[in-house]
Amino acid sequence: MEAILTAVLYGSLLLHIGMIAVTMWRVWRGENVIDRLIGADLLSTFTLAILVLIALISQQSIYIDVALGLVALGFVGTIALSKYLADEQMF
After folding, report:
1. For the segment 25-52, what is each residue's pLDDT rounded down to a tens digit?
2. Contact by Cβ (8 Å): 50, 19
3. Strands (E), the chain
4. Rounded (10°) CA dihedral 37, 38, 39, 42
5. Residue 83 contacts by C-beta under 8 Å, 6 or more apart in sequence?
6. Residue ranges covered by each domain of the chain
7. What does pTM read for this prediction?
8. Greater confidence, 81 or 57?
9. What is the CA radius of gyration of the chain?
């Protein structure tokens, strides 16, 4: 049973890395700023998923703490950039 779980975790990790590659292409070659902003937010989400998968594979909970911190910073950054794009001023 443990071998099946390990195989599924590694498969999911490879799948998420592939999705990050597609998202990076969208951020790099996005048609407009909104597409790039959504891609950057999606990168933050995929980073969270990859770090949680690494935590499950290595059985170390420090990766979950790091993932939550990175996602919180990504959320604040997305909100700040969205506000800047909408109003053309930061505050």
Report:
1. 999 988 888 888 889 899 999 999 999 9
2. no
3. none
4. 130
5. 90
6. 2-87
7. 0.84
8. 57
9. 16
